[in-house]
Design goal:
Radius of gyration: 38 Å
Enzyme class: transferase
CATH topology: Methane Monooxygenase Hydroxylase, Chain G, domain 1
Order of helices and strands: HHH
Protein name: Hybrid sensory histidine kinase TorS
Helix content: over 70%
Pfam families: TorS_sensor_domain
Number of domains: 1
GO molecular function, one term: protein histidine kinase activity
EC number: 2.7.13.3
Length: 160
């Protein structure tokens, strides 16, 4: 009976040790994948941050900087998805979403660029309008002076 108890204890200890080792090995194997998932999450957050900044870009320098950041994050996300795919994960749904997001962000970037160009054109037109209004005021002043001179000459001619 003691031998049976001892054998049972040894088998239980060995099995628990084996289970512990399997758990440890699986955890160690998952750490790189969890690290990639964390990096993927961070890259997505930076992509979202850059997209928000892109929308509020008020000059070409900021617009280009946010565009570069978006491109870098998109490339990083695609590289991480490729690595996950190579490890056997099905990333097709995430890749499709990333492609759709990239397409939308590209369109957003183009629209922001157009908005900046239109704003610049608006400023140029405003400056031209101000310059034209100044010229009209100057010419009107000249006409008023001419009319005053003419009226004065006419009055002088009446008394001659």
């Amino acid at each position: 009976m003691a031998l049976l108890t001892l054998t049972s204890t040894l088998v239980g200890w060995y099995n628990l040790r084996f289970i512990s080792q399997v758990e440890k090995d699986n955890t160690q194997a998952l750490i790189p994948t969890m690290n990639m998932a964390r990096q993927l999450s961070e890259a997505s957050a930076w992509e979202l941050f850059a997209a928000q900044n892109l929308t509020s870009a008020d000059n070409e320098k900021m617009w280009q900087a946010q565009g570069r950041m978006l491109t870098a994050q998109s490339l990083k996300i695609n590289a991480l998805l490729q690595a996950l795919r190579e490890q056997g994960f099905d990333t097709t749904a995430i890749e499709q979403q990333e492609q759709e997001i990239s397409r939308s962000l590209r369109q957003q970037g183009e629209l922001v660029g157009q908005r900046l160009q239109l704003r610049q054109q608006q400023q140029q037109l405003s400056q031209q309008i101000v310059a034209a209004a100044d010229e009209i005021a100057r010419l009107a002043q000249g006409q008023a002076n001419n009319a005053t001179t003419s009226a004065g000459a006419t009055q002088a001619g009446i008394y001659d």
